[in-house]
User: What shape does this take?
Amino acid sequence: MRKESKDLRSEFNKFRRKLLKENNIEHLICARCGEWRVSVHLHHLKELVYGGKNETKNLVPLCHRCHYEWDYWGNGDFNFGTFLLTPPIWGIRDAFFGKMAISKHSLMLYRATQRTMRSVEYAAMYHDGENDDQYEEEWGRQNRIFNTYPYSNMTEMFNRYGEVSTPLVLEDLAMVNSDGVLLNHVKSKYEAQQKGKR
Assistant: This one.
């Protein structure tokens, strides 16, 4: 008999607490945008309700905003590895308006800049600015635990998933608020596009 959703969630919460304690993880780092906070989620690559398991190879850390994006854009036409390479909508919303192409080169530059800025930001937040290498070390350590995608190795990720694309036309970025939440007309547009593919 299939378990109720609330029972699956309860089991996962216990598993999550035990996993973080055993691996001495205070703050997870988002595999996509690099956010390092206590609120970062663990995303199931195969959902529990569809037979996914609570095991590290089925889990990837995602912040709530990146998790929200995947919940909308994730479908059979959009590979999760590619998703991890795309710029978070909330991160580039204010920088770009109108249609634009995102090349592999520009994304690599974006990712390199993003990681440098994150290292400095979290060194200041957690370590009084004394050790910005600790961010990179911790990201790599967590990736060795959640190791289905080599997300801490940018070169390897681009080698594997370098055919980049964006799930949302960038002219719609103006309709995403500061928390990465899509406004209703964007959600409706996306849902209509998906219906047209069926």
